[in-house]
Amino acid sequence: MPKAYEEIAEELRGRITSGAWEPGHRLPSEEELKQQYRKGGPTVRQALDVLLLEGLIDKRHGRGTFVRVPRTTVRRSNERHQWEKDRARETQDVRRRTGATERDTGLTVDDLVFSAEYREATANEDLAGAFGVPTGTPLLERIYRTRYRREPAPFSVSHSCLVREHVEANPELLDEKNEPWPGGTHHQLRTVGIEVDRVVERILGARPPRQDEAKQLGMSPGMALIVMRETLYATDGRVVEVADVALPGDRTELTFVTRLARW
Questions:
Q1: Do the beta carbons of residue 128 and residue 134 sit within 8 Å?
Q2: Which of 243, 3, 260 lies closest to 116 in space, CA to CA?
Q3: What domains can be seen in the chain, in order of their start residue?
Q4: pLDDT tens digit sequence for 125-149
């Protein structure tokens, strides 16, 4: 037999999924729900916690509880990589007009708020193994966040690392003030004579976000966070970028396209 909080959650869930309560709708207060269902505060809070974990509602401090507004979807395909490489050889004017995020979301440059943070780092055991360099090798760590101007949280967070020696010939690549860089990483590497040969994306898993990740990405505790490592290889075989990307499951659609040779 269902518990009282499960029955309340089921009824509230039905109002949301049926569309009776639209995105942004303010739910009755906890006190109103207690009176409506004739149950105590702990039972009502348990019911709301179920919906929060399912990503159906948002609790806003001092304002109440609301039906969650769906985030803009990022439709990410492995075909984006050739598109990014081709764009690196376009004129600066063409490169400035659009980027991978615009391609994946259908938004324009003016719709987006871009953030980049650079800092000096050294290769730990994990990154040293990924790059094939000694532990302690100087790296340039770059943290990227891009969000839709109308939404509070970014589409993803990317921690990108470059071997400093690979890019220091162009000092402009070491300064975050030059971001967003027209043409992205492919063009940045092109300025120091590096051509990307292949991109390997490895899904490391899907898990609930940590508290800091949930806050940063605007996620409910029960949502899935997709964790991916993207590795760029140059034509000479060197690993030239390793990026760990956090992709919220509520706004990410992954498509894998494999072209097959004809018989």
A1: yes
A2: 243
A3: 4-67 (1.10.10.10), 74-255 (3.40.1410.10)
A4: 999 999 999 999 999 999 999 999 9
